[in-house]
Design brief:
47% of the residues lie in helices and 18% in strands. The chain has 724 residues and is α+β, with helices and mostly antiparallel strands. The chain has five domains: 4-79, Alpha-Beta Plaits, CATH 3.30.70.100; 95-213; 231-329, Calcium-transporting ATPase, cytoplasmic transduction domain A (Distorted Sandwich); 405-437 and 546-661, 3-Layer(aba) Sandwich (Rossmann fold); 443-543, 3-Layer(aba) Sandwich (Calcium-transporting ATPase, cytoplasmic domain N). Residues 223-234 have low confidence and may be disordered.
């Protein structure tokens, strides 16, 4: 790791002092590991962000190499118990590896044989057994128990020790206390000649605990879609074949493909710049928004966003869609959720564990005066039967299944916290152009001097470099008039105003009246002006057609939510829009900063805001809103500021999306109630010594299984009833 050449090959991203690396950490084994590794930034300030993929046992870490070197990072991970493993490793289907199944086999073998040798303890035998065979059987049982303690249960003991050393409490702490208490008491009985003690319960507990771990791994595999849901996450790019351009899904990108990236588009894979001037914003990767300039021949990394004119790149790697999905879910794009259920669950789980340990101590103290011999049985049963795993699984499964339902209906939700926010929405703010109006159905015509072929080419190329709905409509119109591509320089797009460029030293502008220096009075149509130098050559008039889906959605939303319209256009369509919005909630000529302020004003009045826009001029408002929804006719238009990508064809289903959020929260509350009731009943039987550690170990994972079934089945039937 001292060799720069070797370490550089391990980085997924490098720009300035920022590095992003993917490390294989084979010691990851439980949810406690995830919590510790995803809070590395609290241990060292050089770590900017870290995210765990539990099933693959991988950790993706973004760090500042000027504050912590790669070697120091590896040493830090080793110190807290997660030494990275470099070199080749098994790339087969993720899951539990051979060592786990050996641990399970050892526990199962020991459990079966210990139960067999403990059988005489449960039946009436004469004194000859006690004096002749009991000591022999007891020491054989002790020998069988040692590999169970030191091999089968080592991960739990190590994790509990690491948590205590890090001054935290995780689920493995009470389990470890139960393991040690049960084992030491049984060891004492064997040494004192009182029989095998609770070794049968100890071995059975170990066996069923590992069965529970197998189930936990299965659930995390089922949950992997939350961070890597490739089949539900749409994105595509323009591929160049000679003079032809074709939009393809990014999953079909091959090494060597030539791709075109427009202004505000995300670079989908590592590539080399072969044409154009790149001004790349890597905030999607690093969280820092300072753009970097790249020249032809420079390397570009996946996740960067082009700011400027079209660039042409050659892919140097096959695309990793899961990488882009992980970037979308980075903490830099996470919104602070007020009164988050996840935070409440985390606090409850922490108090739950502390409460269980407290109850175990109190119960042990009480049984000291009732029957001291039964203290260990009660103590261990209490520590084992009460498990907050069901609480931890409730949100991922309830909200995760909601994400799947929405994804199957072309509504792509970023993460589970967005589902919770959907249930809280009070106000819905719409942008106009491209959101509630069609792009491809807009009627365009030009008023002004006749444009030359050169000017048509310039307009076409300027509009082609932009993804704004108005630009798309103008591009299509000019193309039908014979416009074609040409060479332009210094392309720039100002959100809310327009675009500008230079051709042969002459400046051209396309955009609002303010952008070209025009003074206008009251207008009865939407105009986009075209200027050459200081001379305005004319303007394009767009006649919008409102989406049928918006009209249908409005009927179901108007009585339940406050509806608002904020548009950068003039008030030419105010009369038509009064049929959908209260006049006091309609605002025209809104710049991006005005939209942002409007969102915050609603939030200051305790409103929870859903913002629907195109993801371009309203990116700031989308990010500031509680739920930012990008509505697009081309679902491959991806905006990191969004929380939901919604195919415009299903805009009519927006009310169902909001109802889905509310229903998911109800299912979550059912899960909480069931989990707490289940644990309460189990705790009662454990405290009153009506439960053995063996039965407690069997019951512990059943609460998690029940929550998984409840959430999955509930969302399945909800989808069949309301969505299909």
């Amino acid at each position: 790791m001292e060799s720069e050449e070797i370490t550089e090959e391990l980085f997924e991203f490098k720009q300035g002092d920022i590095r992003r690396v993917r490390l294989f950490l084979p010691e990851i084994h439980c949810s406690s590991c995830i919590w510790l590794l995803e809070h590395l930034y609290k241990i060292h300030e050089g770590v900017l962000n870290s995210e765990v993929h539990f099933v693959k046992k991988e950790c993706y870490i973004t760090f500042n190499i000027s504050k912590i070197s790669f070697r120091e990072l590896a040493v830090l991970l080793d110190k807290i118990g997660y030494p990275p493993k470099f070199g080749k490793r098994d790339t087969s289907t993720p899951g539990l590896k051979t060592r786990f199944y050996l641990q399970l086999a050892v526990a199962g073998f020991a459990f079966g044989n210990i139960m067999l040798m403990s059988f005489p303890e449960y039946v009436s035998v004469d004194d000859s057994f006690a004096t002749g065979f009991r000591p022999v059987f007891s020491y054989i049982i002790l020998a069988l128990s040692i590999p169970v303690l030191l091999y089968s249960l080592r991960d739990y003991l190590i994790s509990g020790f690491k948590a205590i050393r890090a001054k935290t409490v995780n689920l493995d702490v009470p389990i470890s206390i139960g393991i040690i208490s049960l084992y030491l008491r049984s060891l004492y009985d064997i040494i004192m000649g009182n029989g095998p003690g609770y070794m049968d319960s100890f071995a059975g507990f170990a066996f069923f605990l590992l069965i529970g771990k197998w189930f936990q791994n299965w659930t995390y595999q089922a949950l992997s879609f939350e961070r890597d849901y490739k089949s539900y996450f749409p994105m595509a790019v323009m591929k160049v074949h000679g003079k032809e351009e074709t939009m393809i899904p990014i999953s079909r990108i091959e090494k060597g493909d030539v791709l075109r990236i427009r202004n505000e588009e995300i670079i989908p894979t590592d590539a080399k710049l072969i044409e154009g001037k790149a001004r790349i914003d890597y905030s999607f990767v690093t969280g820092e928004s300072k753009p970097v300039f790249k020249e032809v021949g420079d390397e570009l990394f996946a996740g960067g966003k082009q700011l400027g004119g079209i660039i042409t790149v050659k892919a140097t790697k096959q695309v990793k869609q899961s990488y882009l999905t992980r970037l979308w879910n980075q903490k830099v794009f996470q919104k602070k959720v007020r009164d988050s259920l996840q935070e409440w669950t985390d606090r409850l789980s922490t108090y739950f564990i502390v409460g269980v340990i407290t109850i175990a101590i109190i119960a042990g103290g009480a049984w000291y005066f009732i029957d001291p011999y039964r203290i260990i049985n009660v103590l261990t049963s209490v520590l084992i039967v009460a498990c907050p795993c069901a609480l931890a699984l409730a949100i991922p499964f309830a909200f995760g299944n909601a994400m799947r339902v929405a994804g199957r209906h072309k509504m792509y939700i970023k993460n589970t916290s967005v589902v919770e926010q959907l249930s809280k929405v009070t106000d819905i703010v719409f942008d106009k152009t491209g959101t509630i109006t069609y792009n491809h159905k807009a009627k365009v015509h030009f008023e002004g001097v006749g444009l030359s072929q050169k000017q048509k080419n310039i307009v076409f190329t300027m509009a082609r470099n932009s993804m704004h709905p108005v630009s798309v409509a103008i591009q299509q119109f000019v193309k039908e008039q014979g416009g074609n591509s040409c060479q332009i320089e210094d392309f720039e797009e100002q959100p809310g105003l327009g675009i500008q460029t230079k051709v042969e030293g002459v400046s051209y502008r396309l955009g609002s009246a303010e952008w070209v220096g025009m003074a206008t009075g009251h207008l009865t149509e939407t105009r986009t002006y075209f200027a050459q130098g200081d001379r305005v050559l004319g303007y394009f008039i767009l006649q919008n057609v409102y989406r049928t889906g918006f009209v249908q959605a409005h009927k179901l939303l108007k009585d339940k939510y406050q509806l608002h319209l904020v548009s950068g256009d003039n008030n030419a369509e105010e009369e038509a829009l009064n049929a959908f919005f209260s006049p006091s909630n309609i605002h025209f000529n809104q710049k991006p900063i005005d939209k942002l302020k409007y969102i915050k004003a609603i939030q200051e009045k305790e409103g929870t805001v859903m913002m629907l826009g195109d993801g371009l001029n309203d990116a700031g408002a989308l990010k500031a809103s509680d739920v930012g929804v990008v509505v697009t006719e081309n679902i491959y238009n991806f905006s990191p500021a969004s929380d939901v990508i919604l195919n415009a064809a299903v805009l009519s289903k927006l009310p169902r999306l909001l109802d889905l959020g509310s229903f998911s929260v109800r299912v979550l509350r059912w899960s909480y109630a069931f989990s707490l009731l289940y644990n309460g009943i189990g705790m009662y039987f454990a405290v009153t010594d009506q439960l053995t550690p063996l039965v407690a170990a069997i019951l512990m994972p059943l609460s998690s299984i029940s929550v998984v079934i409840l959430t999955t089945v509930s969302l399945h039937f909800y989808e069949k009833r309301h969505w299909i």
